[in-house]
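Researcher: Structure for this, please.
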Amino acid sequence: MKDALRATLQKILKDYIDGRGVSIPPEFQIELEVTKDASHGDFSTPLAFRLAQWVKAKPASIADDLVRLFEKELDQLTAAERPVSRMEVAGGGFINFFVASSQLAKVLVKIHEKDLSYGESNFGEGKKVLIEFVSANPTGPLTIAHGRQAAVGDALARILETVGFKVTKEYYLNDAGLQMDLLGKSVWYRYRGQVGQPIGMPEESYKGEYLIPIARKLKEQEGDSLLGMSEEEAIKKCSQFAADEIMKGIREDLQTINVHFDRYFSETQEIYNSGLIGPTIEELRKNGLIFDEDGALWFRSTELGDDKNRVLRKSSGEYTYLTPDIAYHRNKFERGFGILVNLWGPDHHGYIPRLKAACKALGYSPDNLKILIVQLVTLYRQGKPVRMSTRAGEFVTLRELFKEVGVDATRFFFLLRRVESHLDFDLDLAKEQSDENPVYYLQYAHARISSILGFAQKKVTSGVNLERLNQAEEIELIKKLQEYPEFLIQASQALEPYRVVDSLRDLAASFHKFYALHRVVSEDEELTQARLLLVDAVRIVLRNGLAVLGISHPAKM
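Model: Predicted structure, token format:
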């Protein structure tokens, strides 16, 4: 419907500007939005306001002229073909379109025919997108903060794929640097305790008790053989063993919450061992953006929008964190990805300008690097902030959370808010089986419809009398169903999965309202068939939407 309206607007726009001898920029786009208030119609365009600067007339007058031209186009159609029942000019120049109920109900036929593919589109035109998320250091188990990034990143990838982007999901494995040395030392101390040579834990070490079973397993496999090595060799052995064990647990947790990566990109293997840093620095030097000072190597990032120049290599010869990150993002672009999406924690906000400056320095548009800052999560029980009991030290693990509330609730609650908003996670609500629990509310709507269809024992068909669907609650439902593909596109544009969550919650609310007022299966066979098509369309959209969010859609609850 939206495409049909826009196509007609394009045609009358050409006639309108040609008739007045004016020209508009070739990149001019017609904006057509779904209205938030039903009294303003189903769609609205500010086209008249945007034309005013070239036409030199009041927006209301332009809107009146455009409506008259649109009416002429509609006059060529039969009553059954007219896409809108009426149009109106409001707000000094907005054109509001009220979709004809006869056309609106046709969306049910479309949903029935498309089924699993309803909502899919070619909006992304096959553009290659790389989403990098979670990317937790292999120094400890995943926390609830990592869990939110996992849920958002995975849902976003599913949304982008649904609307036509070609998406790759990547986990950047930061397995080099000081934190790995620290991990090795921390396990070395634990291992010494396991083989009967306990030594005191230094202040700078990972003290979480999750290291104890790792050290115990290392002792079971290696005995006391590490004592015969130099301390440097033993610590390196401990570091690699611990990183492998921790990553094994991370992969298991991600798999449990239905998050699967296409690639794990190792900093050690694919940046340092593959020699990506040298050519990256040389390219920056060739572009005049490298200089030496006080024995260190600097990136002249202030020339590209950063607030100060950045050190790439310290006077000691060690690279800073920025250097492999620049090489990594250069590699991403070289692999043919046109759009890069990174999900980072709030402590990385200040890192954005320097990385965008690096992209620009390498000849890539910084606008093609999208960085989402995913805010933290606070757990609540009985209205009070709590820390769940944990053996892991100073943080709450993702595993503890999904074991308590379940995978579906964990994923869904992580998606309830904008990524930039702090998230309050109500543990009691997440476990509640009531309409107050948003994920239960959606799944129950799907299960209820499945039950209705089973009770009816009738084949749902699109060959029904759509004119029988004329109640206000039925029209409202159909409009919600029609909007679903648009919400997917909006979510892909804003990189915000919560928009899909909101659309499904609105749809479920409209269904429950309809169900409370109207019988689906009745003695009126014609009406029954029409309403079965209606509720089955709701089931399809709920199922497809929950699948896009990575959440199950049970037929029974």
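Researcher: Any notable elements?
Model: The mean pLDDT is 93. Residues 231-256 form the longest helix (26 residues).
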